[in-house]
From TrEMBL:
NCBIfam families xrefs: PRK12324.1-4 (NF008978)
Segments crossing the lipid bilayer: 38-57, 77-102, 108-126, 133-154, 160-178, 199-226, 238-254, 275-294
GO molecular function: transferase activity, transferring alkyl or aryl (other than methyl) groups
Membrane topology: Multi-pass membrane protein
Main location: membrane
Alphabetic keyword roster: Cell membrane, Membrane, Transferase, Transmembrane, Transmembrane helix
Protein name: Prenyltransferase, UbiA family
Originating species: Segatella oris C735
GO cellular component terms listed in the entry, alphabetical order: membrane
Length: 296
């Protein structure tokens, strides 16, 4: 039994995406609320187990395509290191752990569990069929992050601003288009489409889609920081100052996508690109300073 191969299937590094369930705590000003923080942590674990379950199914379903891919052929199932039957067992164990985690939520376990189940079923449909359709594929990925956000809101009992929901969808849609650009570049270099729907994308379309989503994301963030409800909630009108970090972050990601052509894995970008990390940390610290220290 090779634990490393199992970890490759479960992809724990990708769990960082599930920190989106903690955003209601952050934007709701409840980051130091112990009960809400515990509920958010439980929801994070539940989504992480659900995501690993989906990764198992994806690798089982895509095994033939993965074997023809220059990088994905090294995945445990595609390489033959782990059998499909073992992967199915891992898939259902992770799903069971995900749903059982809901029992430990202090409140709104049924609603949070319902959103989690919807997320799981939607992603199974995505892996099995829906990812073959261009535009629909990136929209489903972005909607998956919205579901994370909604689950975090229910679990922590924190109302969500419409701006937060819109920004979550837009920023993840932006990153999804950037990731698809990497597929288009690879298709142009090798003559073979990494995904079945890659032929429905080209650089002109992808570049325009990235520009549009980045622009709307920035405008949406500005509208969030100056909206009366947000100013009243945080008792400060200085949040607009954090816009500079959002703008720089978007420009850096576009640079990585268009100039460096390193947008294939958003998680890897966040884990390895020091510039991006500095911008995110600066934004977080500035936001925290404004809403927790300088409010009022």
């Amino acid at each position: 039994m090779n634990i490393k191969n199992y970890m490759k299937i479960l992809r724990p590094k990708q769990w960082m995406k599930n920190f989106f369930v903690m955003l209601p705590l952050f934007f709701g000003g409840e980051l130091f609320n112990g009960k809400a923080l515990l509920a958010g942590a439980i929801t994070f674990l539940a989504y992480s187990f659900a995501a690993s379950s989906i990764y198992c199914f994806n690798d089982i379903h895509d095994v033939d395509d993965d074997r023809r891919h220059p990088v994905k052929c090294l995945r445990p199932i595609a390489s033959g290191a782990v059998s499909a039957s073992v992967a199915y067992v891992l898939m259902f164990i992770c799903f069971a752990l995900s749903m059982l985690s809901m029992l430990f939520l202090p409140d709104y376990a049924l609603q949070t569990g319902g959103i989690l189940l919807l997320y799981w079923l939607l992603n199974l449909a995505y892996c099995a069929r829906l990812k073959q359709y261009a535009i629909i594929d990136v929209c489903i990925v972005a909607f998956g992050f919205v579901l994370r956000l909604l689950a975090g809101g229910f679990a922590t009992h924190i109302p969500l601003s419409k701006w937060i929901v819109l920004m979550t969808f837009l920023i993840t849609l932006f990153m999804s288009f950037a990731k698809r650009r990497d597929d288009v570049i690879r298709m142009e270099r090798t003559g073979e489409a990494p995904r079945k729907n890659t032929i429905r994308y080209n650089l002109t379309f992808i570049n325009q889609a990235i520009t549009i989503t980045a622009s709307v994301t920035l405008v949406c963030y500005i509208m969030y920081t100056v909206s009366p409800e947000v100013i009243q909630n945080f008792q400060t009108d200085y949040l607009y100052l954090t816009t500079i970090f959002v703008l720089v972050g978007l420009l850096r990601y576009i640079q990585l996508t268009v100039v460096d052509q390193k947008s294939g894995d958003p998680t890897k970008v966040l884990l390895k690109d020091r510039f991006t990390q500095l911008v995110v940390v600066a934004w977080l610290l500035t936001f925290l300073l404004i809403i927790y220290v300088l409010k009022g």
